[in-house]
Specification:
5-stranded mixed sheet, about 40% strand, 1 helix, about 10% helix, binds copper (II) ion, 4-stranded antiparallel sheet, mainly beta
Amino acid sequence: MMLARWLVALFALAAPIAQAQNAEIAATVTDERGKPVADAVVIAVPSDGNLRLPRAREEVVDQVDKEFLPKVQAVLVGTPITFPNRDSVRHQVYSFSPAKHFELPLYSGTPQAVVFDKPGVVVLGCNIHDWMVGYVYVSESPYFAKTDSQGRAVLSDLPPRSYVVRVWHPQQTGTEEDSRKNVDVSRTGRTEVEWTLTLKPEVRIRRAPVHGSHGTY
Ligand SMILES: [Cu+2]
């Protein structure tokens, strides 16, 4: 009886300690005027390069009202992505990016998933609608998150150790490599990291009616 009670007390003590062992990096990304930057991807790679990758689960990039949704999708390397067409017109999604070269021939509905098997930035386009631009950020590390409208991204459940943390955004001036910061979360539970990005103006191709033989693309 004594032993059982002692064990219960021990577990009660041990539980909060075990929880505190998982660290968190809270990132804030703003532009030069202090405005929050949404759709920035924050990636943390253990400094010792030791990565254990979980099994990648399928993700989705929709086409809605002739735009990619989300505009920026961040996934772990090896992730299959489906590109469901929610529009009544057909799309032809492709990328010429070195990290993934693919093309989904003119389609309605949902074609078979494309596996993003190389880390890097994949720029998405549609052969029918020139203004459609989207991005898949393929992370080599399972520790990544995308900033919300407040420019905030939280990487939680990090094993306590030191990380090299970096940020990527489609309009970023300078390179992702230049944004690297060393962050040690081996002791503290939560660490705040901030970036101020200089953003290039967004290049938008004006939406225009497409003149085809049937006029209804
Ligand atoms: Cu399209």
